[in-house]
Design the sequence.
């Protein structure tokens, strides 16, 4: 077939990533050779490909849904926000400088060629490519430099379906207005709509969908019900909200539970690291941003960040540094991952990421951190010593910081030459490795230790929690939802027919 479809959004966080994941899985289960694609992603949640390239975490999950290894082909341009106005650019998996809103247009021609070449290559190799848009397709102020939404759809001559999150309210207006504000050529590519996160009686919504069809000339291809059990791989900052509970929504009723406070840093990256803990029965994980919550939890986690030095200053401004020191002094667990690990040291010397030079760290680990211009991006394997011997572990690294000197015990070791990675002092431990907590045997052993340090030795860790199996189950759950509630045959039909279907242009808002 060699077709393609763009799944666009009426708003940011409408559920595009979930819909693309589910479509990829549902089509792959039909024996269709399908691949995901997001031309330009803006996210600090990233993954590492087997060859050391960096892509958006959502595209790695979508590749998994297709039965494929992650590849830089699936996300050729990744923007990682370093401030409100500038982002670090990753092109075809490799760092490629920085970009600001004002100078974006100057890079457009180069980046457009990159994304269209990759899309054409994927279309030649696969039956169908399911493309994910970025934000809302109705950001008409950005249309002139767009390479991820209607600009991509025009360049690839592909149909578009628009997703709206009805749980937010106003979906019918969102879908109508999103279509109406587009130019006539872009409107002609919009084939129809999907409603996401619907609660209640579908019969009450049906008249509205029929009126929407009368107003726009476009059908709604499905109404996907709200499913509280879907929670993996948050894509952007909107999904990582303070107070949000990570993981399955229901507790299992165990008498002894562990509470985990994951600190919601302003420039948090790879927030998905904490999901593995949330998979465990009896472990409650929540995002927090105040010192009291950090002090009260059984376990505190400092996650990764795209701005280590500035986020460290934020910690201090909120008194969270004192809460972490208090925990360490009392022998209560603190875990730092990547940027969070770097904060735990004595000093951070950073002339690369922040340009701030040397700053004082939290001083909870006897080590110094030096930032290097060369970024480390790689998948890694090693081993860790546990109560019953030694277990193999794997993960991935994405960081500029280097451990320049460390006197602490190693948390894990890498390779035959036993290179130390990470550090442990009492109840404080950290590592540059993302994904470490997804190693099942390692995580279970760690939880026993953490529970003892938290004063809850009666906590019993589940013997069979399998994070990879849970992730597979999540992907299948999404695919099952779409198979049951979306007209997949109709979507395959519009993919086969391609762009240029006979749909009307809405003039209500264009002519005044």
Sequence:
């Amino acid at each position: 077939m060699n077709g393609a479809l763009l799944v666009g959004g009426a708003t940011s966080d409408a559920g595009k990533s979930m819909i693309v994941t589910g479509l990829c899985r549902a089509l792959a289960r039909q024996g269709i050779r399908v691949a995901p694609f997001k031309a330009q992603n803006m996210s600090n949640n990233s993954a590492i490909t087997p060859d050391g390239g960096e892509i958006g975490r959502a595209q790695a999950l979508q590749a998994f849904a297709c039965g494929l290894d992650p590849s830089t082909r699936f996300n050729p341009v990744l923007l990682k926000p370093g401030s409100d106005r500038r982002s670090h650019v990753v092109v075809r998996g490799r760092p490629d400088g920085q970009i600001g809103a004002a100078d974006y247009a100057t890079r457009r021609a180069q980046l457009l060629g990159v994304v269209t070449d990759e899309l054409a290559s994927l279309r030649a190799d696969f039956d169908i490519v399911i493309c994910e848009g970025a934000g809302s397709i109705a950001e008409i102020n950005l249309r002139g430099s767009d390479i991820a939404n209607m600009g991509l759809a025009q360049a690839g001559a592909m149909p578009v379906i628009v997703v709206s999150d009805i749980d937010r309210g106003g979906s019918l207006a969102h879908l109508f207005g999103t279509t109406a504000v587009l130019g006539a050529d872009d409107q002609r590519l919009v084939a129809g709509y999907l409603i996401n996160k619907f609660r209640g009686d579908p019969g009450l919504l049906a008249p509205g969908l029929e009126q929407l069809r009368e107003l726009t000339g476009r059908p709604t291809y499905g109404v996907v019900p709200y499913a509280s059990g879907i929670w993996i791989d948050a894509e952007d900052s909107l999904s990582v909200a303070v107070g949000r509970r990570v993981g399955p929504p229901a507790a299992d009723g165990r008498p002894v539970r562990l509470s985990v406070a994951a600190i919601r840093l302003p420039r948090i990256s790879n927030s998905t690291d904490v999901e593995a803990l949330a998979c465990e029965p009896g472990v409650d994980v929540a995002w927090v941003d105040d010192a009291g919550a950090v002090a009260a939890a059984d376990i505190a986690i400092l996650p990764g960040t795209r701005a280590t030095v500035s986020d460290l200053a934020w910690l201090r401004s909120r008194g969270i540094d004192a809460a972490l020191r208090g925990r360490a002094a009392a022998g209560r667990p603190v875990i730092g991952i990547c940027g969070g690990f770097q904060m735990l040291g004595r000093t951070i010397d950073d002339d690369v990421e922040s340009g701030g030079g040397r700053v004082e760290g939290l001083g909870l680990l006897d080590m110094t951190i030096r930032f290097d211009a060369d970024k480390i991006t790689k998948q890694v394997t090693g081993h860790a010593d546990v109560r019953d011997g030694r277990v193999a572990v794997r993960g991935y690294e994405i960081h500029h910081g280097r451990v320049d000197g460390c006197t602490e015990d190693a948390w894990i070791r890498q390779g035959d030459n036993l290179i130390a990675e990470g550090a442990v002092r009492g109840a404080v431990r950290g590592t540059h490795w993302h994904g470490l907590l997804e190693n099942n045997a390692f995580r279970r052993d760690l939880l026993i230790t953490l529970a003892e340090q938290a004063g809850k030795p009666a906590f019993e860790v589940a013997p069979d929690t399998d994070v990879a199996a849970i992730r597979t189950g999540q992907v299948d759950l999404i695919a099952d939802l779409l198979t049951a509630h979306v007209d997949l045959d109709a979507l395959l039909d519009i993919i086969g027919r391609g762009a240029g279907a006979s749909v009307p242009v809405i003039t209500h808002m264009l002519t005044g």
User: Anything to note?
Assistant: The mean pLDDT is 90. The radius of gyration is 23 Å. Residues 255-459 form a domain with the Rossmann fold fold (CATH 3.40.50.880). The chain is about 30% helix and 30% strand.
